[in-house]
Fold each of these.
Amino acid sequence: MSNFVFVLDKDKQPLDPTHPAKARKLLKAGRASVFRRYPFTIIMQDLEVKNCVTHNHQLKIDPGSRTTGLAIVQGNRVLWGAELIHRGSQIRDALTSRRQLRRSRRSRKTRYRKPRFLNRKRREGWLPPSLQSRVDNTMTWVKRLQKFCPIQGISQELVRFDLQKLENPEISGIQYQQGQLQGYEVREYLLEKWGRKCAYCGVDDTPLEIEHIKPRSKGGSNRISNLTLACHECNQSKGNQEITDFLSGKPDLLKRVQSQAKKPLADATAVNATRWKLYESLKSTELSVETGSGGLTKFNRTQRGLSKTHCLDASCVGKSTPENLKVKTRKPLVIKSKGHGRRQRCRTDRFGFPKSHAPREKFFQGFQTGEICKAIIPKGKHQGVYVGRIAIRFRPSFRMSIKNKKPFDVHPKYLKTVHKADGYEYEI
């Protein structure tokens, strides 16, 4: 089942989302028309908010380094879900390339832009652009969903792991040895650190057990640096052997396990930094913001028997997660951040020398790069009907990209815009 459909009244005020079948009936009867394709939204022709009853909806967010999960929950029903894919790594690579090109021009004593780090001050709360883009993408969709759905509160996974448990792994007593969250924080940390695979044989998609690198019987502790994950067979084979004895015939694997055990979670640290920035931004929406840890999210998902996806993780964020959670959507909307183009006018080769110049105009014959268009091609090699993302050229020959098909050229006279360019690419 796909997501529920967002509904606006005739004054563009949000109503409760409706089932896709009911939305089709409203469109067929002429009582509504399509307002937006992604996320799919209809606008009523004969209804106002004052004549309808709306319910409170909770927007739940599971921030991630590469993908952020979004879910809208009403009561005990998950009505809408999405996975927002970030482009932080692309931004980092672009800035690195620019920095390298400028540095090479300085060493050649050619025309260059002088470094400006000595006379510039970073504002308070500054984040690197690759991290700031994650916050901006999430806030864009929070504000967008507020316009389409009567959201009254937000739940955010604020920290991936319980920092108290990580700072003091030997903590004992009823604080962690008893209670519902026993072991969930540490296990979630280890799953992230070891890539959800057995450290010894590399198998995945199998139950993993927490394993002591230095056995407890020989003086090993419960510290994070002494814990790893292993499948049942490897765990039993190792027993209480020292890791140097168990992997004596595999020196490369031994070196990798020992180095990985001491390696901190740099990615998790960076994501935690963006989460705090996101938390401050969410508070500016003036909605009530609930927070929870990653261990609590996993506990909620496990207790309710849900599979692990970004969307379902988001629906289980926070203590407000209902006991009997009903998932009404199985196909989340995949949202991929693509950016709004680039300001660079002079394109360079890999040595930093100019090779072409981009035009300043962003539109040609009413089209813009990034728009989702429908192409009806009557004849030729690519005869048929297609829906895909276009890249304009300043001649009547655009480039059309479709999933699982090689990009091809299409004349703009065969195109009709389905969704205007907004910096994102969509997939259901």
Amino acid sequence: MKHKQFICLNGEMLPAGDPSLMHDNRSFCYGDSLFETIHANGTKLQFFQEHYRRLESGMMFLEMDKHPDLEPGKLELSIIRLLNKNHLYGGVRIRLAVFRDNGGFYTPLRNSCSYLVEALPLPYDNYRINEDGLRTTLFRTLQKQPDKLANLKTANSLLYIKAGLFRINSGLDECFIMNTQNRLAESISSNIFLMKKGALMTPALSEGCVAGVMRRQIIRIAEKENLGCVETQISENDLISADECFLTNAISGIRWVVAYGQKRYYSKTARRLILALNSDQFDG
């Protein structure tokens, strides 16, 4: 039996199919919004505190005032209520959006905000490596400006949409996004890691990548595994000369890249780290 699905708007459970936002919503009109994508297993939210801290930091930067129910304890309970109401007890993809309340044009009339939570089931409860590695290319049409906005997850996603269309037209699985210094910043929906001559490396936040929650966890777990990780500048030459390449995000965990053009990569480190990641979050 299929259950009726709900969303959570400012703590209130509403039918997912009913209208819930007005035409002058600032996220719709101006992209005046932040969002978090969170993995859950049952009613356990993976890295919830880390997601919350990133959201809070982004709201402070954008000068948004907190909704009263956006305290971490209240918010977590609202999300768990939504999971239970939607009968989602396995792997779940949660999207938490925070947007400034209606009013004004580019300049807002107020800084109060609202939030909306959606939840969708995932095929797996934990993180699983992709057995068919990703085939990738570079997206060169547009570049990302490496500033403080670049580290946020905002509703302004036109760069990623263009990259996604390019990926589809190229017949590939993923593509890398460059910054304005012609260095690698990230992929369409993930942070980038390379293993080169025994050293793990990832673009520094100053290179313009999103400050990924999973990126930070992989750096932490790599240190526990005695791998370490250098946050640095990464060029196309580094990509070509690397032994391994993998991508990370909060939903998939780790995705292994098998090819960039004619270059081929191993998956040893990606497999090692995803085992450690699952052990960190799900074992015991």
